[in-house]
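Sequence, structure tokens reproduced for reference:
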Amino acid sequence: MAELDITSPLLSSPSSYQPQTVLTVHDDQDSEPSNLQSSLPTTILHQNHNHGRTHNENGHHSSPNPYEFLRSGGFSVPASTTVDPFRNETPFISGIYEVIKIVLCLPIALARLVLFGASLVVGYMATKVALAGWRDKQNPMPKWRCRLMWVTRVCARFILFSFGYHWIRRKGKPAPREIAPVVVSNHVSYIEPIFYFYELFPTIVASESHDSIPFVGTIIRAMQVIYVNRFSPTSRKNAVNEIKRRASCNVFPRVLLFPEGTTTNGKALISFQLGAFIAGHPIQPIIVRYPHVHFDQSWGFISLPKLMFRMFTQFHNFMEVEYLPLIMPSDHQKQNAVRFAERTGRAMASALNVVQTSHSYGDLMLLMKAAQLQQEKPWIYMVEMARIESLYHISSLEAVDFLDKFLSMNPDPSGCVKPHDFLRVLQLKACTLSEEIFGFLDVEKNGSITFKQFLFGSAHVLKLPLFRQACELAFAECDTDGDNFCTKKELADVLRHTFRELDDDEVQGLFNLFDTDNDGRMSRDDFFYCLRKNPLVIAIFSPRLLRKNLSKAGDKMLEDIV
């Protein structure tokens, strides 16, 4: 993995540690976010389809811009990083040493499995007793119930022992809860939550899906977990409010968050979610390392049973935990969670001696989708989702839908799609406009497009301010009788302004693309849904929108466009 900064050691020399020490990490100078759209003309010369040619940032001579009628100035695609933050470096057993070690450790593994099972059962039973009859979950757990949970916490340490963590090296100390009500940590394996449960017994923020995990769901409920659905804005907002409430009250345990939102291989620090930083409380970062030679303990893109088996069959697994100095938000950063998160991320990345990337949980979703569809190199479909979410406000679920569309274009082993397959999936007839649409995405002008280019281009068009107005006008052109439906004949009449020679099969293909509910007719909802899923297709209506004189209401919208 590429590492940009290797100047600081993995573990600095021992020194006296004061938990109240404040780490000051200076901000970079504020700068306005870059705008991918260049300055745009206020009018389109001659209002026809012969758009001007431009040069992109890489110096390539670009084809005519088929989206200039939407005031698009083109887009750029950031260079891809070579870092894969989810790849486990030892997914398979390889080498004579590992084979011999596993064979020798098999009897030990059986004993460890028994210890693991017994500890889990005892901890579960103790937790059930501690939770029995407790109804007031909005207030802190009573002290006597917390004392019962010490049984479960000791069981957690035995579980760590069964996984081969016989001793764990610690550096520094946790700050008092009154000083650091929020702690954040990098997330490499399922081991860290078990360790923090034993060491700190904090309140954690976890996915709602964890509640249904046998045994584990019951135990994390005793930690007064704050559940969140990462795909629900309402759930995320409620979780942030609950974090604020508990962090502000010293009778609650400290709040622990893994701001990366998923596990990585520990070779990079991916983008942070902002939940831990919005409240503006002092934060103590904690970093975890798993030094290894033959067995990578990270829970990256590897199955849980395989990872557990490998842990059970090691002589010893190494783990290092370092409590970093507090990070205090400045006055303006109490109102700016992004800046606070950036400071914390820089401090943690520096201590870990790793790079920071713009990957997020969305990239893991793309990786799993590509693997599910049996792509030869699923990792090439990661796009650093945090960056595109920031630029275009495209959600991870939307990105997965775009990937599904792209993979239906039969990309080659290198992840590139040729014009023929691109046009086939979008039901576009080979013509000058179709070539321009493909050329709009092909920013490197090498005759093929990658998923990153497809996603950035589609998101750019989808989020253009005039995109929705263009959709309204396009449907108004198709709906000639005003009944909020478009027939196949009406669609064909409009498209003949773009494609001079359309046969019946080609019209039917485009009609099927828009008829998303397959009821044989295209409703207004069908039309808009199709264009949200395939925003590049809006270009096929541009000749009609630019040449047709519309009604009085339509003229006003047309003026906004051209």
Notes: Confidence is low (pLDDT under 50) at residues 1-55, 549-555. The radius of gyration is 28 Å. Residues 347 and 530 are 45 Å apart (CA to CA). Residues 466-560 form a domain with the Recoverin; domain 1 fold (CATH 1.10.238.10).
